[in-house]
User: Fold these one by one.
Assistant:
Number 1:
Amino acid sequence: MRLFLALVPPPELRERLGELADAAHAHYGGRRMPDESLHQTLAFLGEVSDVQATELVDWVRRLTVPPGEWRLDAWGHFRRPGILWVGGHSPDPALGRLQRRLWDALEGFGLAGRPTRFVPHVTLLRRAERLDAHGLPTPDLVWVYNRLDLIQSINHDRGSRYVSLARSPES
Ligand code: 3AM
């Protein structure tokens, strides 16, 4: 099964992110991420075995995520898949530390795939028709987090559906 670790927005923030997604969609077209799929990927694990998945579920249920606040104050894009995202203007040191700590542990589980660059972001649009418009208001949101989710990504005809398999305790 295909898994990733992510921050899942609390309901109010999810709503604000959904509003940004609507504004972005009006400008850029493409496929708007459904509200229930909005997340911030900390580590994409790819395909893992059932045995590994069970170990990961146990680990996440005991994992402590240091509480943090991530400021979302910039739009960004990944040109090739036409992804438009909202994220931070500058790298967030606490999220960087969390991501490195997670990968240290994941490599202990025998998982590979640590990326060379980590750009925390929330994907709002996929296959955007253009990425060069500048008509959107600058975002200004704060994501207060203290836990993460282990999420299964299930492919279906119109994209992926995400199912949380485990959630770390609130810290
Ligand atoms: O956080 P976002 O939505 O940008 O793009 C996929 C999504 O990221 C990414 O993992 C998240 C959940 O699917 N993803 C999918 N395949 C990937 C891969 N092979 C990948 N990230 C890195 N390598």
Number 2:
Amino acid sequence: MKQIVTRFAPSPTGTLHIGGVRTALFNYVYAKQNQGKFLIRIEDTDIERSTKEFENNILNNLSSIGLTPDEKPINQSERNDIYIKAAEKIIESGNAYWCDCSQEDLEEMRKAQTEAGKKPMYDGRSRNLGLKRSEKTVLRLATPESGEIIVNDLIRGEIKFNNTELDDLILLRSDGSPTYHLCNVVDDYEQKVTTVIRGEDHISNTPRQIHIQNALGYPELEYAHLPLVLGTDKKRLSKRNAATSLEEYRDQGYLDSAILNTLARLGWSQGDKDVFYMDDLIKDFDIRDVQKAGAIFDITKLDWLNSQHLSDLSLDSFKEQLEPFLQKLDIDINDHEHVDLLIDSMRTSDNTFSGIARSLVPYYKDIKEYDAKALEKFVADKNLLEELKDLLSEVEDWNQDNINDVLKDFQIKKELSVPAVNQPIRISLTGSTKSPGLGLTLCLFGKEKSIDRISNLLNFLS
Ligand code: GLU
């Protein structure tokens, strides 16, 4: 059996888009589950919009997220000779012709067709003129004038295109440069690609590309056109409705594995299983089960999956990955007496590393601000906080059990609710009403600092 070869073929006209990561992921997984190869091709023929910076961004991000190609990526901009040779082969086979229609000719043609209520397209007027190549001519593919092209899409099933709907597309421009479709088809052949997995925006290109393949005598390819990635507003995912670059998600502290998991679940599911790592995907993913309808990229889903993936990390790995997020806040993770206990008790405080780092700030730095609403709700009575401070000052052996017992007794004796007693202390220590169990929180701060912080809040209030 032929070895499966897939490819991701980005145009380097922007940083790696989250939708691109999804396309690359499905190509990668499909190759790996078939013991095949995953390749990358940089489609940089549009020299005005393509940059090396974007190319490097795409390649580095793909590798660092684990979607490493099995061969060195190729660049279309360096392969002109190969495309020109292919065009010459088509000329020799009699499947292409030179056309000297000017821009004005084409515009007039389009206008007349539109006025006649027809679909505007090149009408093939130069096809039988036997024109020679000149500075004014483009090379066009002589597309069959009848019949149909049937694409057997792994996701969409059979898609039919009437050849009469397709005009004779340009293969070489008048300056001799090859066009996008020609390069794309030639490279799929040269890279021995067997399976094209790409966004559904490329469906209409497929019959055109198949005609070029046929003209060159290339073997048939397998296709899978992926549903669009939509924002929560059901419009195509764009900067307007979401962060779109992979880096933005990483900077917010989403794990690569959670990002990939979320992307894999766009339009694909397997029973009620939610959490998938790469190995699971290679085992379980089936491209034929991907739905056709656009799939919504929902940040709340990513948040949830991220929390699941975070909880699977060992404490050491969690700490290591959290460290840079704390550094951004000028915090050295080890600058705490009970660092392991602290990080372990705070690891579920938020869904992302950046959120967790933010909630750790009060444990490393003095409190600059108290949550105003929390103060209003829980610290209306300064005297109670004074009493709590005195009570805690008397605890000799500062451990969770002792602290909890003392606070519990006080709460019962005073006939107060648990939050009425606990929250003022919590607010003193962390500035907010959120923290791990109060006994644990007080231990994380230690006796001296806990008492100090209660004094600070008392000062702040007076
Ligand atoms: N270069 C095209 C793009 O970035 C992909 C073409 C393909 O996958 O065939 O959309």
Number 3:
Amino acid sequence: MGLIVQKFGGTSVATTERIRNVGHRVLEEVNKGHQAVVVVSAMGKTTDQLVSLANDLSAYPSKREMDMLLATGEQVTISLLSIALQEMGHQAVSLTGWQAGIQTEKVFSNARITDIDASKIQSLLNENQIVIVAGFQGVSSDGEITTLGRGGSDTTAVALAAALGADRCDIYTDVTGVYTSDPRYVKDARKLDRISYEEMLELAHLGAGVLHPRAVEFAKNYQIPLEVRSSMERERGTIIEEEAQMENGLVVRGVAFEKNVTRMTLFGLDNSHATLSKVFRSLAENHINVDIIIQANTGEKKSSLSFTIHDEDVQNTLSVLEKYSNEIGFDKVESETGLAKVSIVGAGMISNPGVAARMFEVIEGIDAAIKMVSTSEIKVSAVIEQEKMLDAANALHAAFKLGEVAATSVN
Ligand code: ADP
Ligand code: ASP
Ligand code: MG
């Protein structure tokens, strides 16, 4: 007998019939003698619908009220699942994030979990209850309702698995596992049996929406094996673990992509030694996430600096830069929206110097201009125009032969 955390995403709970189906998947584990903690998302597209309701009223609704609003979505699902399980003759109880003891920092719309007091869940489990917890939400130390960022229910599940010392954490979704690329847009994408935490973390950060990046971070830090699998089909999913065995000769494991990227460029930047720290300190203090940064100081008095942000942060970034313009010292700022980032990921890249060159050849081969590049030991990313994003992803997937089981060499 063990303790299992199961998480079901929005599509898996989109209707009452699917909620009943989820109930059956939960009971499969319970009937084996396991204790079950179940984390659910809001039904179907509820979160998007709530966002658009708010946008009907305001272009910039306050983040506090948005969290208050969005947290209601998951609350609907927990109670419905609990009702379904009770109807099937089982003891079940639903808990909001705050009732479940999920503490977060006070950052609306993208809060990090700081602590979990799992005592209430534990005592309900001891009473043989199936415990159902609302994903994506928590409470700050001063009692404010917070949310964990879009897709954050995964993180609730893995964090609870860590706090409870669960034996397993299963993420049920609308695909049968983690694929070499998003199967919705890359036609030859292939399901992986296994992938390492490190590669999954990189893919998730680079836009593979199948898992919330912080969920993978928790899983890696607490060594919790994850399985991503389908809530509708029976086949085994993808295991995410410390050292996934490399498939033969595999250099690139997956292709990820992300749109809504903006490039900001500051021209005529003073080359005094503290300039960069001032720019990025002021952005960080305003919770603006910066991704790729490019600056070449060639020893002249002035230089330019480019960095990427998410489209939705453009206004905020411009006003922060304006506010600090005298302190930072630059001539003008330009932004280019409508860009996308396409990335290849694989632990095998470290020892294969030709991978980046091959990637650039493929992107140039579809006539896309590469605007920025960023590399690490296990990934290469290129910023290109958004219209070329899916062509680039499909071309890279084919060039690195990711659709084939025994994968590729570099040339
Ligand atoms: P859930 O609501 O269950 O959390 P999500 O929509 O957040 O589901 O995540 C599942 C989706 O992730 C899939 O439908 C798929 O389109 C997308 N996705 C993106 N990249 C990948 C990938 N590499 N492997 C599998 N799915 C991916
Ligand atoms: N309901 C939230 C969202 O749509 C959280 C989640 O599904 O993980 O982003
Ligand atoms: Mg998700």
